[in-house]
């Protein structure tokens, strides 16, 4: 019987096994998303409310000058569309983290974590799956916005895709990092107040930063330092077939930092290890 | 339930005396949550093709132990090995050989039975075709083949447990851990699950660690580990443990063992 140990257990994993695992996790996340129609509807209604109501009301208040990547005067709706695309991903990233806390409380997370594949890879798959779901939401929004005269060049729908994947990964790994620090589901309201709202409002999503600078230089610096601003700008430029290199660098760097942080936080010998079922020390 | 084991041809009839490497070995494992000690120097092993009952009251440390074996928590001190593979040093090899049924339900309620099984198979890198074949076979063995496309939400508690056991067997593990799997089930469902798991031991030579606080789930031939306040108070064959405690049955033996331990000054 001792031969079981050596003969029956292959060392390491083949590329095929990694791929099977990745597609399995994305497939399951997609299925779950399809089963939660309310989540899809609310993910869509939120930016549309901003677009149809807020932007319409603010159109007259805020004048937008010609700033890159735009080549003409644009309507306010056109300006905030990329910000709303990023907002969808921000909410989705935080919602995925909410579901991870939920999964951990309910035990679903355990099924994932007892997989023999390396844990960092499992979490990366989970992030990719969350990003894929956010892409579905963003493209549904962009489709509706098109009827609202938000019409970037047709090629923009393609060039924005890599930007959306990167920003989705960044916001998803930020959510995952936060979720590792949340002990209970109820604490998620705090995430809304302390993460989502400040990130969204202190960014270039709703107003161009030069206008912010006129009002408050300090807020301007805060906005410049906000990774969400760079996610928005990355998407904005990509939507018009351009690359904002600074934003690309910031988003890429933040993605790497947040992802490593999240993977370390879920490493049993570090993060979760110190938290027991009864809470223990943080 | 009478179908032959799916992987019977790859394993000769298990002979306990030939089992040099234990299915599970736990050596000097201690664990603390902050200042609170949950496990103190726990050591025992589970042999292949054996049914080992881990008996302890709620809060004895059973779930902590399960979390350590399944690598949900890091090991603070001591060593856990599955068929000789250290869970900290080579988790991939160790977890491949391990199937787990956790105490809380861990199924996706909105997905179908088959979808739940396919997801689990994917997590183990089992190809879709292979996974579909194994899922169909296992669903047949637990008598749920005709429900394959139904949502898990529509199943009864006992059926869900059987599905979870089938899921834990999907990647053909050699060691199966079950954490109080019969809690909340009616008498019939309990009996079904116990006999199913015992069948796995005798027919497929799987080593089973069965955590419970229910004395009547333990039989004379089983190995028994008594865990109380994070310490192993007794271990060995059930009849020996009972005899050494000078008792007639497990119930009395347990009371005697733990009664002595909870006296003032016992420490924890």
Would you kindly provide a written description of the structure presented here, covering whatever features stand out?
Chain A has one domain. Chain A contains 12 helices and no strands. Chain A has helices at residues 3-7, 15-35, 37-58, 76-106, 108-113, 119-147, 156-181, 188-201, 209-215, 217-225, 227-239, 245-265. Chain B has 2 domains: 31-97 and 174-268, Rossmann fold (3-Layer(aba) Sandwich), CATH 3.40.50.300; 107-172, no CATH class. A 6-stranded mixed sheet of chain B has the order 6-7-8-3-9-10, sandwiched between helices. In chain B, strands 2-1-4-5 form a 4-stranded antiparallel sheet. In chain B, strand 1 and strand 2 form a beta hairpin. The model of chain B is unreliable at 1-19 and 262-268 (pLDDT under 50).
Secondary-structure arrangement, i.e. CATH architecture of the largest domain in chain B: 3-Layer(aba) Sandwich
Give the N-to-C terminal Cα separation of chain A.
43 Å
CATH topology of the largest domain in chain B, what is it called? Rossmann fold
Class based on secondary structure composition and strand pairing of chain B: alpha/beta
SSE pattern of chain A: HHHHHHHHHHHH
For the largest interface, the chains and their residue counts are: A-B, 51 and 58 residues
Mean of residue pLDDT values of chain A: 84
Mean pLDDT of chain B: 87
Number of domains of chain B: 2
Portion in helices of chain B: 25-40%
Spatial shape of chain B: globular
DSSP E strands of chain B, number: 10
Pfam families (chain A): ABC2_membrane
Membrane topology (chain A): Multi-pass membrane protein
Protein name (chain A): Transport permease protein
Keywords (chain A): Cell membrane, Membrane, Transmembrane, Transmembrane helix, Transport
């Amino acid at each position: 019987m001792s031969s079981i140990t050596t003969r029956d257990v292959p060392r390491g994993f083949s590329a095929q096994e990694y791929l099977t695992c990745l597609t399995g996790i994305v497939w399951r996340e997609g299925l779950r998303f399809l089963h939660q129609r309310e989540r899809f509807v609310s993910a869509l209604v939120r930016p549309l409310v901003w677009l149809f109501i807020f932007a319409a009301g603010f159109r007259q208040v805020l004048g937008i000058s010609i700033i890159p990547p735009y080549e003409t005067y644009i309507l306010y709706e056109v300006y905030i569309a990329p910000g709303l695309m990023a907002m969808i991903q921000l909410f989705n990233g935080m919602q995925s983290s909410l579901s991870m806390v939920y999964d951990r409380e309910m035990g679903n997370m355990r099924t994932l974590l007892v997989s023999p594949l390396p844990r960092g890879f499992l979490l990366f798959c989970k992030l990719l799956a969350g990003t894929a779901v956010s892409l579905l939401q963003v493209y549904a929004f962009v489709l509706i916005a098109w009827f609202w005269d938000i019409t970037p060049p047709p090629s923009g729908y393609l060039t924005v895709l890599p930007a959306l994947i990167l920003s989705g990964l960044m916001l998803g790994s930020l959510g995952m990092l936060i979720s590792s620090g949340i002990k209970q589901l109820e604490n998620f309201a705090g995430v809304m107040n302390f993460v989502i709202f400040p990130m969204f409002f202190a960014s270039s999503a709703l107003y161009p930063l030069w206008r912010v600078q006129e009002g408050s230089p300090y807020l301007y610096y805060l906005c410049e330092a906000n990774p969400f601003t760079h996610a928005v700008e990355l998407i904005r430029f990509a939507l018009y077939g351009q690359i904002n290199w600074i934003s690309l660098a910031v988003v890429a760097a933040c993605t790497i930092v947040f992802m490593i942080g999240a993977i370390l936080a879920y490493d049993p010998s570090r993060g979760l290890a110190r938290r027991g079922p009864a809470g223990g020390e943080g | 339930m009478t179908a032959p084991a799916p992987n019977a041809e790859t394993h000769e009839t298990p002979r306990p005396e030939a089992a040099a490497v234990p299915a599970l070995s736990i050596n000097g494992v201690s664990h603390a949550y902050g200042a609170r000690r949950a496990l103190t120097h726990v050591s025992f092993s589970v042999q292949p093709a054996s049914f080992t009952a881990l008996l302890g009251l709620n809060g004895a440390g059973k779930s902590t132990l399960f979390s350590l074996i399944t690598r949900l928590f890091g090991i603070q001190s001591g060593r856990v090995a599955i068929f000789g593979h250290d869970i900290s040093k080579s988790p991939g090899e160790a977890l491949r050989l391990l199937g787990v049924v956790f105490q809380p339900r861990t199924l996706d309620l909105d997905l179908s039975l088959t979808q739940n099984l396919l997801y689990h198979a994917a997590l183990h890198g089992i190809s879709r075709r292979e996974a579909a074949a194994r899922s169909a076979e296992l669903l047949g063995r637990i008598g749920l083949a005709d429900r394959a496309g139904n949502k898990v939400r529509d199943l009864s508690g006992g059926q869900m447990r059987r599905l979870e056991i089938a899921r834990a067997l999907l990647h053909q593990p050699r060691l199966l851990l079950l954490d109080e799997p019969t809690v909340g089930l009616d008498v019939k469902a309990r009996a079904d699950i116990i006999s199913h798991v015992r069948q796995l031991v005798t027919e497929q030579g799987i080593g089973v660690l069965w955590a419970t606080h229910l004395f009547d789930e333990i039989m004379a031939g089983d190995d028994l580990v008594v865990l109380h306040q994070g310490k192993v108070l007794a271990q060995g064959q059930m009849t020996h443990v009972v005899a050494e405690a000078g008792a007639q049955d497990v119930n009395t033996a347990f009371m005697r063992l733990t009664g002595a331990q909870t006296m003032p000054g016992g420490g924890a």
